[in-house]
């Protein structure tokens, strides 16, 4: 039916068409969740706890409900009482439905600064805000537990009397008072360390950081008289949000329709519900649609940042550089409810190296902070920060080139991974040889206190279930519809795959994302999966379209369908050479041969797709202020076939920029009573354009055999190496190793002081 | 796989669940097209011609565009110039794209009172209305052509110098100056009339009448920077409107998404575009979304009422009552552009009788009135008004019971229809015997000037392409989505079919109508087709779901799929009796066996489905005022299996009510210069609740073998007989035959005067 072609013989894949959503976004015309309007709509606002840990003695809403303009008030008592129960989020794992409900609205206890206590719907946002001040809450304060060390200490305050452990793929055990333990063991680390000539051990910590999406959370919910609930919101996963809402409100899934609007940034933080069930209950009480949106401080205090951690890592190597053993203990904050990314961190920790003896203990630790949510390659940066610094130290100590050390120990296609299955196809050595051959690696450093760092990481992109529908119109135009919200240009990258598969120009295709009623079930846009996994489903649907069109041509030419061949955008009758029709011409004959064609496909590619990334960074450290200036940054990533190279570069650059922010500046500052002290973008210090260098993205393309065009996905991996690469560069520049993320100026200064016993100005020269 | 059951062995079909959309509509919460809001939205208004026929010399919009608050102005010059070209509307026939464009906005000429000339978008509807007054138009007036007699007269003014004939299934010829002719001939009418003992000939006329839907036309259109056009509107056919807009604006179909909102009445009048392309151009010019809605006078002046007609009918019968020949000449107004329902009227004229010799000439006649559109059984009432009066006259003259006369000549299953194909299965005789046996037929009439009338009609319901999607969720709830806008409770009647086919309670199903991007192509909700034709597709999709669920059960029980049986809502392993799972329990296992199930089906049942209806009416005529009071009304209709008997009765009652309005009161009054003089619901006299009796609906159920549950469709047929039945009842009451619809009081008075040569008061007794 279709052409056979070599990997690089593409018409559309690999080109750079302009994406359709750009101009509306630049002009401010795109409809984001806060722009959405319904007639007769109310505005909802949430009263939040100022205490990190307290028992709720009473909530009196009587003064608020009496205020003019107020139409409804809800508290935890308006929510159905539900038991602890793990509910499936499909590819997005499992979650305890009670935790999801309690995180939307506190019931007996508040568990973090910013925890929702009550909500008001009123004629205006101002009326609602004012009414919040009239709600009287009495608390019984409890001691807050603010990090993994305090939470796991003997005699620590217990945050939950009972809870279900977070969702992990392998067996877990409770580790009281506030943690769950999971263990991975392969070989014997005792034997491995006995074989080592050099053993390096480090303990690192990292702080809570937020995804920092520009668009704040917002939703509009209408609860119809017939019990049908419609939700217009910003989300990575309309189906996941729908299932969340059904679980929290205990109503049938089929009654809920979630309409995903444009997403103004998410990075993992918009796949779980916060406002929607609250707005739903306010709508049911008031009989009117209710819109709710968070202020920036609410986003920072009460959505899902990534974990603060403590990681102990110990690695042994022979003097030839071969690694014999690795032992890690990873403690990841889950926030106020179980479920950190510690298991993903354990997978990311050492799988890129072929280490015969590995033991890892992971702890999922409950603390009095907001419930963590995924943040781009969740859990990866801190553990790689620990391990890649140790590898840098081993290379320096043994006098081996740091890239050669990695190549020596590299996991290659088919090598057995620590989880027991063989590594799927990927050219990891080709990636590292590209780094080594790159001009950046050999160019000289200039100036005082400059240094170069390198780090390497591997990540496993998700597959999972997706749906796609392709419709062919009588004028030859085509609609492609999926359920994958577009966070990075995927409407275009999916359209490009459809165009390639259909043999038509991409301009003929309109690509949109549907609501949860309007397409088959799909996993969220997470795990770098959309262009890869949804892409496969799009290609399948395109094949279905071509098959049906061939059948129509067969009807018109009165031959068997097998005699129709399609190539170069032209249907041909194999029996009569002169009978030919373009895709467009045949489209014009659809009405007379059975109507326009629509093909719907749902499919779930199995397993994971490896992605590899290596970063090189040059820095100049100011020893007086501790400020780290990035002089040059090159990010190498194997993305499989790059569908739209501009967007791939954008993903690599964006991920690296976030990794740099996490590495150098971003962190939550909690005071001793558990109040978040920097809940604004002025004080929560994300890198600005002035803080960042040009990030050169070098795209490597070892094809993924699981995808028809070799696509791997590219969204996450490059957030992992920056912290490790920068730590290694700082060491190269000023001879100190940082053990804490972010490597903020005061920590850099402190490390230099500890090393030299002197003020920074005394070492105003290159330290080696 | 599924149960085998007899026709009446249903769990859900035939019950009367409460429809989901009712409460929101009663409470005013349902979102109709005028309720829809977008941020930054403008309001558009249209300047309309006050002349029925004129050449546009110039339009000066400069003063309007300068008015504060005005954001864009468009005229015919802003529309693409397009050639005459017949474009397919799928099952909805063909249309000339140039006519569709010209009807949205006049280019060189205005062709009817109310024809759009220019449009303004402004910050408020008031600003837009005021700006219309600042548009200066210069006309060259032309003589208007206001009915079929004037239009077809020698020397008549030519409305269109060139035009394509309306869409007919069989060959047509132009019949200058303003008409197209189609002819149906079967046997020899000359021979047939020669065999007749009695020949009756009548000429009738009927006037333009409007569907009278309560919801006025409204639309909101956003033209995105990327050229994607989204339309939120009230329509019977989102795909047809989409294709209309693409043709008028000459943009790719794939760029347009039409979101159908709740429909507040349509009856055939909301399947073609009026405001949408105008709003689209205003949106493109202003860069903002534009909402447009019509005032009531605009709806009456410038949308699509049904045709005024003139029909000559001549029927011959032997003295035993057998009809030997029928000859008809039907002239139907098309309005300002070609395409009246004359062909449908020809099909409806005599097919219910098995007449050996038939000749019909149909004329599609262009006049200076708004372009007609379908109105519930389009074209049927006037021609049946003519034919059934003649049959009443034949029965009276020959002294044969009027029902026996019909039974003698009845078309039965398999009889050859005038179009050449055999009549599909239907128990027409059973219907007429039900009427004859009914208490109404034999009960005595009481009081002076009372009479009883009977009429019988047959209509052919459409099949056509539909799409449906069924999704099964993990909690056992189910979504059913179709592209068929719900004008009569079809969300429920389709859900009931899905519930029956799936073996689950209907309460488990949420049923919705999708936008044009969110489901496969479908023909509009027209031709009584949705519960029948879309219903078949729903049943097919349900079978697909059960097949996939059986496969999941087979996976769980590790047996072959063939060993899974499903009955009574329970999946069973045929090999091990104890292995059983309910539909709901198996739904809960979907995540672990491949994810939730979604099945999408598109299918087009071929051919037409006969529907038969017979009405009995008792009247009292006030000879002084001519007012016809309805004393008792019984409508008998064969609907096949009645899915939801309440809604079927509602359809029969609603159709009869509209037929009564058309029969007794409703008509457009044009003055000599072509101005519509009654463009308001005060002056355009639809029946109110006080005008109508209780209409008893008697449902007959001869199953349709083309549908799995025997459904025929029921929406249209009962609008046809009322005028004929009332005419026969008036004759029975006061001895006069009315030759003009509506049979308004002044015409009844006039007829009585002509008959008696006296004032009405002189005949204040029962005339026979």
Structure, briefly:
The structure is a homodimer of 768-residue chains. The first copy, chain A, is α+β, with helices and mostly antiparallel strands.
What would you note in describing this structure?
The structure is a homodimer of 768-residue chains. Chain A is 27% helix and 26% strand. Chain A is α+β, with helices and mostly antiparallel strands and 768 residues long. Chain A has a 7-stranded mixed beta sheet with strand order 3-7-1-15-12-13-14, sandwiched between helices. In chain A, strands 9-10-18-17-16-11-30 form a 7-stranded mixed beta sheet, sandwiched between helices. In chain A, β16 and β17 (323-335) form a beta hairpin. Chain A starts with 21 loop residues before the first helix and ends in a 12-residue tail after the last helix. Residues 1-5 and 760-768 of chain A have low confidence and may be disordered. The interface between A and B is large, with 60 and 60 residues.
- How many strands in all of chain A? 30
Question: Span from first to last CA of chain A?
Answer: 63 Å
Shape of chain A: globular
In percent, how much strand structure appears in the residues of chain A?
Answer: 25-35%
Strand order of the largest sheet of chain A: 3-7-1-15-12-13-14
Q: For the CA atoms, what is the radius of gyration of chain A?
A: 27 Å
Largest sheet of chain A: 7 strands, mixed
Whole-number mean pLDDT of chain A: 94
Helix count, DSSP H or I runs of 4 or more residues of chain A: 20
Largest interface: A-B, 60 and 60 residues
Low-pLDDT residue intervals, each spanning 5 or more residues of chain A: 1-5, 760-768
């Amino acid at each position: 039916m279709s052409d056979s072609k070599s990997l690089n013989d593409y018409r559309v894949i690999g080109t750079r068409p302009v994406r359709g959503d750009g101009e509306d976004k630049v002009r401010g015309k795109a409809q984001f969740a806060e722009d959405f309007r319904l007639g007769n709509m109310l505005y909802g606002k949430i009263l939040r706890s100022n205490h990190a840990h307290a028992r709720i003695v009473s909530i009196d809403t009587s003064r608020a409900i009496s205020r003019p303009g107020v139409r409804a008030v809800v508290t935890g008592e308006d929510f159905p009482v539900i038991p602890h129960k793990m509910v499936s989020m499909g590819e997005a794992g499992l979650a305890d439905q009670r935790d999801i409900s309690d995180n939307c609205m506190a019931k007996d206890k508040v568990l973090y600064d910013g925890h929702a206590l009550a909500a008001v719907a009123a004629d205006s946002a101002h009326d609602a805000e004012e009414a919040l001040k009239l709600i009287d809450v009495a608390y019984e304060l409890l001691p807050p537990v603010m990090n993994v060390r305090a939470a796991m200490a003997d005699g620590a305050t217990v945050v939950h009397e009972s809870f279900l452990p977070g969702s992990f793929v392998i067996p877990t055990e409770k580790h009281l008072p506030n943690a769950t333990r999971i263990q991975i063991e392969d070989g014997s680390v005792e034997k491995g360390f006995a074989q080592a000539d050099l053993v390096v051990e480090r303990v690192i910590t990292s702080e809570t950081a937020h995804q920092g999406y520009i668009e704040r959370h917002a939703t509009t919910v209408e609860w119809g008289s017939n019990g049908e609930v419609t939700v217009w919101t910003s989300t990575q996963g309309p189906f996941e949000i729908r299932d969340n809402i059904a679980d929290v409100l205990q109503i049938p899934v089929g009654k809920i329709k979630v309409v995903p609007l444009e997403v103004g940034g998410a990075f993992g933080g918009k796949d779980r519900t916060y406002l929607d069930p609250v707005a739903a209950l306010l709508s049911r009480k008031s009989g009117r649609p209710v819109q709710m949106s968070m202020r920036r401080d609410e986003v920072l205090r009460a959505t899902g940042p990534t974990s603060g951690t403590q990681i102990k890592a110990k690695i042994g190597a022979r003097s030839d550089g071969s690694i014999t053993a690795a032992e890690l203990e990873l403690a990841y904050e889950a926030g106020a409810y179980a479920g950190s990314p510690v298991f993903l961190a354990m997978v990311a920790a050492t799988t890129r190296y072929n280490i015969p003896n590995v033991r890892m203990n992971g702890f999922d630790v409950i603390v009095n902070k907001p419930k963590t949510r995924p943040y781009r390659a969740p859990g990866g940066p801190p553990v790689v920060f620990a391990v890649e610094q140790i590898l840098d130290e081993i290379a320096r100590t043994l006098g081996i080139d740091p890239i050669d050390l990695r190549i020596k120990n590299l996991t290659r296609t088919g090598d057995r991974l620590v989880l027991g299955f063989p590594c799927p196809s990927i050219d990891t050595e080709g990636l590292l040889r590209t780094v080594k051959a790159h001009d950046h690696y050999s160019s000289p450093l200039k100036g005082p206190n400059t240094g170069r760092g390198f780090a390497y990481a591997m990540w496993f992109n998700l597959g999972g279930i997706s749906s796609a529908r392709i419709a062919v119109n009588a004028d030859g135009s085509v609609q492609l519809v999926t359920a994958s919200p577009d966070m990075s240009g995927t409407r275009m990258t999916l359209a490009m795959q459809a165009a390639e598969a259909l043999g038509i120009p991409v301009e003929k295709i309109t690509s949109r994302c549907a609501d949860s009623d309007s397409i088959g079930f799909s996993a969220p846009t997470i795990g770098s999966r959309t262009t890869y996994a949804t892409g496969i489903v799009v290609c399948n649907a395109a094949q279905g379209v071509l098959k049906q069109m061939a059948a129509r041509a067969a009807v018109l030419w009165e031959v068997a369908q097998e005699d129709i061949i399609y190539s170069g955008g032209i249907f041909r009758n194999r029996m009569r050479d002169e009978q030919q029709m373009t895709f467009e011409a045949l489209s014009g004959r659809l009405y007379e041969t059975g109507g326009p064609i629509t093909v719907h496909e749902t499919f779930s590619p199995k397993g994971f797709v490896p992605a590899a990334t290596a970063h090189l960074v040059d820095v100049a450290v100011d020893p007086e202020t501790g400020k780290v200036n990035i002089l040059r940054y090159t990010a190498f990533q194997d993305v499989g076939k790059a569908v739209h190279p501009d967007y791939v570069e954008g993903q690599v650059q964006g991920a690296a920029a976030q990794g740099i922010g996490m590495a150098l500046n971003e962190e939550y500052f909690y005071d001793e009573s558990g109040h978040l002290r920097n809940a604004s973008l002025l004080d929560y210090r994300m890198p600005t354009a002035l803080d960042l260098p040009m990030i050169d993205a070098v795209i490597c393309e070892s094809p993924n055999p699981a995808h028809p065009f070799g696509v791997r996905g590219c969204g996450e991996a490059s957030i992992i190496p920056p912290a490790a690469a920068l730590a290694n560069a700082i060491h190269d520049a000023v001879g100190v190793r940082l053990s804490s993320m972010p490597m903020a100026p005061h920590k850099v200064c402190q490390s230099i002081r500890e090393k030299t016993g002197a003020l920074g100005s005394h070492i105003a020269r290159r330290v080696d």
